[in-house]
Amino acid sequence: MTKPDETPQKQEQTKAAATNSPNKNKSPTEGEISQEQTEEFQETQTEREQKKELTTNHQNTGSELDQLREKAMESATQHIPETISTTTTEKPQYDRSTEVKEYVLARADGYCEGCGDPAPFTRKNGGPYLHVHHIHELSRGGADTPNNVIALCPNCHYRVHHGENGEKYNQKLEKKLETIENQSKSA
């Protein structure tokens, strides 16, 4: 419930803290909002402003879009040739623990541990669709342990690996994971 004397920013912080809280059913009361939650709110606010600016600045004009379509139509093919080409690349495979994956997905309880949103859809087996992400990649010596693995929605996972600020976001996730694991230990 909103208090009449709260500022709109305080109301938004309370709402953001409740959304990102690992305990989805409990809303923080005044004074329970941590410095980290305040910083997260400010980062989220900045991200929203950047997205709005990007959307405004990135809209293609009709002529630009027409030119792109024309080029696409020129290079389009109605029938793909039946030539088969194969390439082989060697990529290391890692034996990852099924138990760690199951624990992390159970810990997430159907919610992305990055953004706090529910899984975007249900897998064929009935479970929530979340990716299991290693904060410190296995290929770089990272461990396959619960304190290095976080459950992410596809957007958050791709943001880490392909986003403009992916490395910074991964560092933020590392801090979040530390908090999540500490809460799991004490529960």
UniProtKB/TrEMBL annotation:
Q: What Pfam families does the record point to?
A: HNH
InterPro entries (UniProt xref):
HNH (IPR002711), HNH_nuc (IPR003615)
* GO MF terms held by the record: endonuclease activity; nucleic acid binding; zinc ion binding
Which intervals of the chain form a coiled coil?
Answer: none
Spell out the residue ranges making up region: Disordered. Answer: 1-96
**Start and end residues of each HNH nuclease domain:** 99-158
**Which superkingdom, per the lineage?**
Archaea
Instruction: Output compositional bias ranges, type Polar residues.
Output: 14-34, 75-91
User: Which residue intervals are annotated with compositional bias (Basic and acidic residues) in the record?
Assistant: 1-13, 45-55
Q: What is this protein called?
A: HNH nuclease domain-containing protein
Q: Which organism is it from?
A: Halalkaliarchaeum desulfuricum
